[in-house]
Specification:
The structure is a homodimer.
Chain A lengths: L15 H19 L6 H8 L6 H4 L3 H25 L7 H18 L1 H10 L5 H27 L9 H15 L10 H14 L12
Chain A binds a DNA duplex through α3.
DNA sequence: GTCTATAAACTGATAGAC
DNA sequence: GTCTATCAGTTTATAGAC
């Protein structure tokens, strides 16, 4: 809570932790843009305003940077989704919880696009060692949605002629991909989230009488 | 129609065109697995059973291989979709045409996963020069779906409270992503396509009376 | 905490033998 | 049509000055 600009006495450093964060942010942006292997540490260093050698003061290796970028991509989304759903009344219907989850997933994703898009684009392209570490947090988030959907199914609010696993994979996959084509110039985020939720809930066809969102 | 194993008289070649196809196939597989920049031509050559230098007899550059892999990814899907829709009766309702399009898109994609997944994964990560060339065939396929959806909208079969552009981007994006998680061991392809189509048409919630698919 | 300099390995692409 | 050999440039990571 006190003065954060209290600089060290030695050399020409200002704030080591800020540099670390800048490296992570620029790494996410470049991983998203060019892929993991294609991104050189020199590029990351240039973008973060330091020299390549300096990166190794903050990180042990390129793969450690990758690990932090990947985890951050999921965690941002996961935390936003939980916050949205926890804010609902205890007796809220499952459809409202799912709607809150969709809105939270979209919000977290589209407001931290470099981390989430990097995660989505490069996860399939990284060494198995990096995948293995990251799988834990991925599995957690998937389980969270599975429980949500199974509860909705048990309450009779979810369609029963498709497996909840396929529903989860389809919905999360569709949401994830929006970060690749979402264009804020086409309208407000709220309106965008409303349209996506309507399509996921009621489909793309016209129905005589919809009991989904209205 | 005659003997295809008629080999040339010189050196130790068997069939030049088959080698070319093998290089393309292995390149697609490796681009999908590790990304474009991360894949070395030595790896491609090894996988295709030739030496690195030999690639340059069949292709001018790494970027030319990329171009052919990308185009093939879209064209396979586009041609399957058109074949499915053209096979319908002239007076088929738009919902049937869209269903045929979805089934064709899934089929083309899941049966040529290396080309379509490579396309999807690396398109956002390649040099602008490669993107520009590839954009033409992408735009064509997008236009095809836009016309399909706008016709369905004009006929009153498509929901009108979301733009056809958003519907197209959402549906195609969701379909594309299935190649990342589709597991043939979970059931037949026909059953998979049926579930996906049902979700896209009628949504994930339960409706009192659905007029979509039955 | 950041720098410069450098090691050791790998990259796309070319030249020319067979 | 495929090979070997090689060029010029780039890569991650380390060592040590400041």
């Amino acid at each position: 809570m006190n003065d954060k600009s209290a600089s060290k006495s030695a050399g020409h450093d200002l704030d080591g932790n800020a540099t670390r964060e800048r490296i992570l942010l620029e790494a996410a942006r470049l991983f998203r843009q060019h892929g993991y292997a294609a991104t050189t540490l020199r590029e990351v260093a240039d973008a973060a305003g330091v020299k390549a050698g300096s990166i190794y003061y903050h990180f042990e290796s390129k793969e450690q940077i990758l690990g932090e970028v990947l985890d951050k991509g999921i965690k941002i989304v996961y935390e936003t989704v939980r916050a949205r759903i926890d804010a609902l009344p205890k007796d809220a219907p499952w459809r409202d919880r799912i709607a809150a989850g969709i809105e939270g997933h979209l919000w977290g994703m589209l407001h931290h696009g470099d981390f989430t898009s990097a995660n989505m684009r490069i996860y399939g392209q990284i060494p198995e060692s990096a995948k293995a570490k990251h799988r834990v947090v991925r599995r957690e988030y998937a389980d969270y949605w599975d429980q949500l959907l199974q509860s909705a199914l048990a309450a009779g609010e979810l369609r029963a002629d498709a497996s909840t696993t396929i529903i989860r994979l389809f919905v999360i996959g569709a949401l994830n991909w929006t970060v690749e084509w979402y264009n804020p110039e086409r309208g407000s985020f709220q309106d965008f989230a409303r349209q996506i939720t309507a399509i996921i809930f009621d489909g793309i066809l016209v129905h005589e009488k919809s009991l989904g969102t209205q």
